[in-house]
Amino acid sequence: MGVLDGKRIAIIATDGVEEVELTEPRDAVTWAGATVELLSVGTGPIRAMNSDIEPAGTYAVDRRVTDADPGDYDALILPGGTINADRLRMDPDVRAFVARALESGKPVGAICHAPWTLVEAGLVEGRTLTSYPSLRTDIANAGGTVVDEQVVVDGNLVTSRDPGDLPAFCTTLVEEIAGS
């Protein structure tokens, strides 16, 4: 039995997602027993990238964000990738889904560029988090406190800086979901 048996977790991503930031958290929660669904802005497969510039694998989407209800999931994971994060933060349905998940108290994990969606949705004011360095001014301007640490937990929000932090991010995310 895994510590996440019976948990349903949504991952929101689109074209340009950083592949390891999609696959490693997905594999960590799946290995711990959770069921994962990949949500996106469209229905077709999404193309992942390596380091934002090298095409990587494609991943089948389970459902569109507009067809999903945050109440059906026990947690949410937002992988990074510059293109992915920029596209997702501009989508009102994605912002609404993320806001509902975070405000409901469910664990939300965001790594690398993913906090852009949190900024755009007005969800960082008064929170402490970390991110890829290029987002830190945006987070501070949105009222968040930025720290440069491998992983930061602020209430139900778990953030990390980049793929180098994935071991700490995945471990902490599994622990936070298991404790919720």
TrEMBL record:
Keywords: Hydrolase, Protease. GO terms for biological process: proteolysis. InterPro entries: C56_PfpI-like, Class_I_gatase-like, DJ-1/PfpI. Residues 7-176 form the DJ-1/PfpI domain. GO terms for molecular function: peptidase activity. Belongs to the peptidase C56 family. This is Protease I. It comes from Pseudonocardia thermophila.
